[in-house]
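Technical appendix A lists one of the benchmark inputs used to test multi-chain prediction within the project. The record comprises two sequence entries:
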Amino acid sequence: MQLLFAAPALPLDEAGKYVAGAYVVFVVLLVVYVAIMAAKVQRIERELREVAAIAERNKETEAAPGREAEEAAPRV
Amino acid sequence: MYGKGLKPLSIATVAMVALSLSLVFFYAPLDGDQGFIQKIFYLHVPLAIVALVGFVLGGVFAIAHLRTDNRKWDAYSYVSIHISVIFGVAVLITGAIWAKASWGHWWVWDEPTLVSFLIVFLLYATYYPFRYAIEDRDRQARYASVFAVTAGAFVPLNFMAVRMAQSLVHPRTFATAEGGMPGEMMLTFLCSLAAMALLWTTLVKFELTAKSASGQVKRLRRALDAPVAGGGSRIAPEVS
């Protein structure tokens, strides 16, 4: 374990790779998280569009009840 | 409701992260012992502190949930733990990179600081399967809160035990007999800590807003007697 204490500071060109690696890992994790959240928000938007379409259909049905009954009646 | 103030918070986070990165690379002096590699300290340590505080906060929110039976607090607890686990992954990876550069090893098993953080991380990693295993939503929220309180109490105890233990290679930077960091390093560290705390808060708020929006859509579907798409998540708490 004493060898670990005696390890000298790395030269800049070698240390730079490790420092860049650590910061890149952090950025990548953040980007992955944001991408997952973006997918989630897209799904919510799609669901909201579907709900809006259902609400509009319901409103049209309520506005024209006679037409619906006419369509449902058997034709002779 | 959850999205209120998210925009200014996000702007403040971006500004603070930019400021802290500028201080890290253009203001803070090079460490006499470790040299340039010490720059990882300004990322690794604030991430670790914020992750651990986040775990404790998850426990505090869980107490509020158990006391009031308000599902809002369960959502806060779940999201706090969720974001802290992500921060925990970053702590472990950046720590391993720093260890490889400084000590020549990716991991040192007889170092209490490293192993204790791994234990805390693995403990919280079991939170998801634990929550997922319970079908009933009320029981799920209650049991998850009990887990969060117990694990949250374990975090400071674990931290104190590590501080009292004999460190082999991991440095004790704060409150040591040898003195603290120079002023420039301390200022940079505090800015980095504030940036990470802001980032954690923003992500928690962002996640809560998304969950709230998803919950509202499900409520709308139920009100319109339409089938709920996907049946909803069984792990994540529904926020309305």
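Chain B touches chain A through 39 residues (CB under 8 Å). The helical segments of chain B are 6-26, 41-68, 71-103, 112-125, 127-132, 137-164, 183-223. Comparable benchmark entries are summarised in Table A2.
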